[in-house]
Batch of 2 targets.
Target 1
Amino acid sequence: MRLNLRALAATAVYAVLEQGQSLSSALPEQQRLLPNPKDKALLAELCYGVMRVLPQLDQCISACLNKPFKGKQRIIHQLLLLGCYQLYFTRIPAHAAISETAEACRQLGRESLVKVVNGVLRNIQRQQQPLSEANDTLKYNFPAWIIKKLQVAYPAQWPQIVENSQQRPPMWLRNNRQQQSREQYLQRLQQQAIEATAGNSDDAIMLSSPVDVAQLPDFGVGAVSVQDGAAQWAAQLLDAQAGELVLDACAAPGGKSCHILERTPGIRLVAVDNDSKRLERVNQNLQRLGLDAQLFVGDAAAIDSWWQGPQFDRILLDAPCSATGVIRRHPDIKWLRKAADIAELSHLQAQILDHCWQWLKPGGILLYATCSIMPEENHQQIAAFLARTADAELQAITASQENCSPDWQILPGQDNMDGFYYAKLQKNNTA
Ligand SMILES: C[S@@+](CC[C@H](N)C(=O)[O-])C[C@H]1O[C@@H](n2cnc3c(N)ncnc32)[C@H](O)[C@@H]1O
């Protein structure tokens, strides 16, 4: 039997909330089962929507149940979250939302709970109570531990950061300058009635509203790629030159590797990632764009184990991080990350950074990047590195006039970009 859209959505939400999978891996598994693109889009909207406002939905559902669902029955809790989301946040007629959600309950093999699902959702619809804002978690739909950390790190800006992280992000493109200038591509978009503007970095284009990539002129032959404006600063700040040996130390899925090569032909790029499946995506991206790099599955904290060549002229270290800067794109991060992850990640980042530094030529540049907004992973990480590394010097990044620190913390929503962090480190010749 083919499951209906709500049953597929509940399966994806269950995989995230109960099994710790990311939505970007759980969702496509279910989307594959829907032939119609509109249905795929609705499935995504429901799953992403639930992740955005989970605490309020959770509170609303829990208040309607005498006892919580446990174990495998939790999928019915997730189904109710989806039902509640449809009633509060979509224009789907209430009768359709309720009957489709109840039908999903039956299809998920929980015939005995169909009446409960129906009853709870009808109750919510009848009462039409505003969703609770009784504490900060409910008011902002953010975990308390992240709010607390943001309040300490950004006493004035945290409410804006939280609000921006709840917004739907714009779609950004990276112009492939090997194929056309940004001006030329902007004109092609205009001819297709796709409204777009140039971003602050050299190749960035921001669309006024998202479109299916199939609608983008020559997307299939690599004229543009989808990449947030903040991530596009990496290649520009790294500023690799033709003939240089460059390491992309945490490369998958390869957006920044491709940009480095598009910007400057003649770079010898080595791209490594310790996740072989993700590295396959680097390969696919390079192929689509007709680019070439040497790929390794390996540990960036043990370069000697897979690389026998010389030290590198430049290294991009786009470190594994909490991804707290990209919550607007991946709202499931709010529920997948735990407070203890930040210290663990910061330790891992320090290990990789120290090791990569040994593989940088004297005079070389290492660009450290994360899509985090946590100081422990960013400014504090680099301050500690500079304190323990005699031959390291921080070069000032002057990409934004608002930035008065040599490193650069981009906050979510700033110039419509994701939250991101950059520090440009030079290795002195005389250590
Ligand atoms: C932020 S993502 C990189 C995104 C990539 N630079 C891009 O622009 O497409 C971090 C990557 O680091 C990889 N990673 C984590 N620990 C690693 C390690 N010890 N060595 C190499 N790669 C690692 C992860 O598999 C993940 O693909």
Note: The chain has a mean pLDDT of 96.
Target 2
Amino acid sequence: MTALTTVAPETAPNWGRIALTLFALGALVFLVAFEQGALTGGAPVLHEAFHDARHLLGFPCH
Ligand SMILES: [Zn+2]
């Protein structure tokens, strides 16, 4: 009879996944709140889109 061996689960934090998640969250906050046209050639297309989305959701912004 052979003994079954089990592998201990990985307990160390997955730093790569944590770093990627933090970067993605930071990029999302930048796009939603601070992007003023730097990524779209000067036209604040993303800014206006998120601004309109806030109004559609009834979020008071001004
Ligand atoms: Zn507004």
Note: The radius of gyration is 22 Å.
